[in-house]
Amino acid sequence: MLINQFLLLGAVLFCIGVYGVLARRNAVLVLMSIEIILNAVNLNFIAFALRNNNIDGQVFALYIIAVAAAEVGVGLAIVLLIYRNRRSIALEDLSAMKG
Amino acid sequence: MYAALVAQNVFFGIIAAVMIGGALRVVTTKNVVHAALWLVVVLAGAAGQFILLSAEFVATTQVLVYVGAIVVLFLFGTMLTRSRHGTDEDLTLRQWPLAAFVSILLLGIMAYVLIDAFSDDKLPDESALLVDNTAAISDAIFKPYLIPFWALSFVLLAALVGAIVLARRD
């Protein structure tokens, strides 16, 4: 296996996640696209851990999984609060700080 | 020996195609619950790739934490923030062509850099690796990377308490 096949797969997933963050209207869908980005980064870390025969890449990937779990918990709590206050989580309706 | 290499590449191709198709469905589907289920496809595919890269502990952790907890969190969040009219509304912003252009440009730059830097480097053969990954991971976590591990437990505690405080009704 080439290392490039895993790195290119990670790059494609990263860019699909970036498109999702920029183009989705629902806040929960934006959080899902962030999860795709984090998984692409994990794939990179573990591919390099295999290439350099160093376990540090896998340890870092585990830490990223833990931080992603914490981030999704707090992010969804914030989305829930916004929904309670404004009855909508469409990003176009959340423009109170705009110009 | 050669058959194992062919099998690895075939499985990589299948899992990569499924992952990319699932990720595209996450960012284009019109139903939020369907997007969460396609996300499960992407996350399970990532766990399969980790097993191909002989990282079995991370693959198991990925299935347990991501598929088992985070997707359930997403589904609960979707349930509690439903809009009035169900799936009628459009879930993509008006400026999505600009987002597509940005992401394709980013992909082009990254692909060029990756092919230029790692053009034909092969991954090492399985037999030359650390044979007991879980023991090596625990040695790494509890010796050189102990302080990030403690910091991470504080992060998880703060996230847990914070999410409960934010979301309670009073």
Put the structure in a nutshell.
The complex is a heterodimer of chains A (99) and B (170). By secondary structure, chain A is an all-alpha fold.
What can you see in these coordinates?
- The complex is a heterodimer of chains A (99) and B (170).
- Chain A is an all-alpha fold and 99 residues long.
- Chain A has a domain at 26-89.
- Helices cover 78% and strands 0% of the residues of chain A.
- Chain A is built from 3 helices and no strands.
- The longest helix of chain A is centred in the last third of the chain and has 31 residues, at 56-86.
- Chain A is elongated, with a radius of gyration of 17 Å.
- Chain B is mainly α and 170 residues long.
- Chain B has 2 domains: 1-83 and 92-107 and 125-129, NADH-ubiquinone/plastoquinone oxidoreductase chain 6, subunit NuoJ (Four Helix Bundle (Hemerythrin (Met), subunit A), Up-down Bundle), CATH 1.20.120; 131-170.
- Chain B is built from 6 helices and no strands.
- In chain B, α1 packs antiparallel against α2 (32-52) and α2 (32-52) packs antiparallel against α3 (56-80).
- Chain B is globular and about 60 Å long.
- Chain B starts with a helix and ends with a helix.
- The model of chain B has no long low-confidence stretch (mean pLDDT 89).
CATH class of the largest domain in chain B: Mainly Alpha
Q: Encode the helix/strand succession of chain A as letters.
A: HHH
Q: State the major sheet of chain A.
A: none
Name the helicity range of chain B. over 70%
Unreliable segments of 5+ consecutive residues of chain B = none
- How many whole angstroms does the radius of gyration of chain A measure? 17 Å
Terminal Cα span of chain B: 64 Å
- Count of distinct structural domains of chain B: 2
What is the CATH H-level superfamily of the largest domain in chain B?
NADH-ubiquinone/plastoquinone oxidoreductase chain 6, subunit NuoJ
Number of strands of chain B: 0
Would you tell me the structural class of the helices and strands of chain B? mainly alpha
What is the residue-averaged pLDDT of chain A? Answer: 92
Distance between the amino and carboxyl termini of chain A:
52 Å
**Shape type of chain A:** elongated
Radius of gyration of chain B: 21 Å
Quaternary organisation: heterodimer
Q: Tally of extended strands of chain A?
A: 0
CATH architectural grouping of the largest domain in chain B: Up-down Bundle
Mean pLDDT across every amino acid position of chain B:
89
Beta-strand proportion of chain A? under 5%
